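Friendly challenge for the regulars: who can give me the structure tokens for this chain first? No prize, just bragging rights.
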Amino acid sequence: MKNINLKSYLKSELKDSNEENNELISVINSIADATKLIAMDTRVTGLKQIRGSLEKTNIQGEQVQVLDEISNNKLVDILSKNSSCSGYASEELEDPKIFNSSARFMVVADPLDGSSNISVNMPIGTIFGIIRNTDYGKSSFIKSGRYYISAGYSLYGPSDIFIICVNNKVAEFTLDPQENDYFLSRSEIKVPEKGSIYSVNEGNFSLWDNKIKKWLLNTKNPSGTSAKNKKLRYVGSLVADAHRTLINGGIFVYPTDKNNPSGKLRLMYEANPFALIFTSAGGNAVDLEKEILDIEPENFHQRTPLILGSKSDVNNFLDHMAIGNKKIKENTEITPIFKWSSNSIINLRKNLNLSRTKFGNKIGVSRATILRWEKGIVMPNYVNKKALDNAFLSVKNDLIDNPLED
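First reply, four minutes later:
Bragging rights claimed.
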């Protein structure tokens, strides 16, 4: 397999030599080039004194590691020079960077997943997704996983590998450091129908919903004479735990808990890429009730629970979640009256004669969130829309633009 490098593979898979396919190949190769540089840095973190954290936090409120910022900058630098890349959004950036608004493809990424493992030399990686540009602006990034045309990740470990999903096929490439190139090491990866491993942070057990607790107890002590106990394997790095699950089967579970009621992992640049990879490889990826790829995001940094793995194991998990879910959803769902665009939000605030700070206080969000709504960077969620409805109804006769506008 070694004579098949990444560039040759992509040209073979995307056989129609049209402009769009050529540009997609170019973007994937740019991402791969960035991961080669990141891989080099991960090998010498101790020697270059680039491990440890910076004196700042990212948009998530998490401590930024030195290598987080270096990795993000490498992706920005390389992708900004690719004329086929419209823009880039990541865990380390509050808002997307737009390079060329008319270009075909946008990239979302977690530049260095598992960076808390750097200091102890555990596996870390880069996760990415590629979205076809349709809206030509920052709001174009806010798409469900169904709009992702490709996804992949690099895993920096005993060997450095690059997983790519194109045309609903998943393949693995291993970096040859002497030739500085990725060569095919696994083709057409398929997730086993069922696995013997489960991967979850059991330290959060006391914070889970009872249904999740019951699933875990049944997984550890299955009923039936032919049932076998699954083995626990958990690294604490999504890219490492997900890769093992992709190759060996089983299930990876990162649910909601009392401290993270919306989930912990990021939908756009962690969950969606892995969801596309796993479903293309014959597995499944869900939140607590539906497929990850069907979630309509409301902002770039939206969080979600993530369960992925072998179909049989994921279905078993969903069976445990099914009890009472429908009733709970019907009792708690909020249905806003109106759709809301950036223009109608601006007009509502002006009609109320409020500053962004005071308007945010009225709606129950920060000034920064109001600004992002008005710029079309993020969209209000259901609860926010309901608050906007109530504010609108107090001035509905004066509002210039109809909130039902398309």
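The CA atoms of residues 13 and 167 lie 7 Å apart. The chain has three domains: 6-186, 197-331, 342-393. Your move, everyone else.
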